[in-house]
Design goal:
The strands form 2 sheets. Strands 2, 5, 6, 7, 8, 9 and 10 form a 7-stranded mixed sheet that branches. The longest helix has 17 residues, at 109-125. The radius of gyration is 17 Å and the shape is globular. The chain is α+β, with helices and mostly antiparallel strands. The protein contains 5 helices and 10 strands, in the order βαβααββββαββββα.
């Protein structure tokens, strides 16, 4: 599969794109609990931490939804759909600040974890600039899903920071919480409404839960 351009004139989402792209606040978010029972043990069998496992599951789910791989073209002529998207997430540093690390997509959790661990460790030890020690290489900003984890809070809602013309999907993971004999984790997905509707977010959560269950 290759990247492709979808002209505004031929896009089935033309009306929604025109309606939402000029709004001052065109994004919406939904928070849903996902089941992560015994994720620690299951992830360890693949050489991954729970943190890496749920990042991987979310990234695979985002790649499975066409709308989450799209970005608005700056000239308003349509959208670009990437064949593959990757993740940028936050890492808590040793000095109490945080930095960003790029997590490249790999369908296999083992390979994803093996590649991600050195980058996470570099960023954890770094200081100063938010992107210090990250190695994004040739990954364009438009081909990233922005992620963050708040393991201290079992939140029921979350609002992401967005800059001007920022249409990237954003995902936040919260604290594990036991409920009804299951271990649950809140996940907030924030998307640009010109690109995604509720049906796309619904597909994302279905796919993410399937990915988590398959570990």
């Amino acid at each position: 599969m290759q990247d492709r351009l979808i002209p505004l004139e031929s896009s089935p989402r033309r009306a929604a794109l025109l309606h939402f792209r000029g709004m001052a606040q065109p994004a919406f978010n939904v928070t849903v609990p996902v089941t992560v029972t015994r994720l620690r043990e299951r992830a360890a069998a693949h050489g991954a931490t729970p943190w890496l496992a749920y990042h991987h599951a979310a990234l695979e789910a985002a790649n499975a939804v066409d709308a989450m791989r799209q970005t608005l073209l700056p000239d308003g002529s349509g959208v670009r759909e990437f064949a593959t998207i990757h993740a940028s997430t936050t890492v808590l540093r040793d000095d109490g600040s945080f930095g960003f690390v790029t997590l490249r997509r790999d369908p296999l959790l083992e390979a994803f974890a093996a590649r991600a661990k050195p980058g996470v460790e570099r960023v954890r030890r770094a200081s100063g600039d938010l992107f210090a020690a990250d190695e994004a290489d040739d990954v364009p900003e438009q081909a990233l899903v922005h992620m963050t984890a708040l393991p201290w809070l079992a939140f029921t809602g979350f609002t992401h920071a967005r800059g001007a013309a920022d249409d990237r999907p954003k995902i936040a993971f919260g604290r594990f919480k036991e409920e009804g004999g299951q271990l649950l984790m809140p996940v907030c997905v924030d998307v640009h409404h010109a690109l995604c509707d509720g049906v796309h977010v619904g597909r994302f959560f279905e796919r993410m839960q399937a990915q988590l269950d398959a570990i």
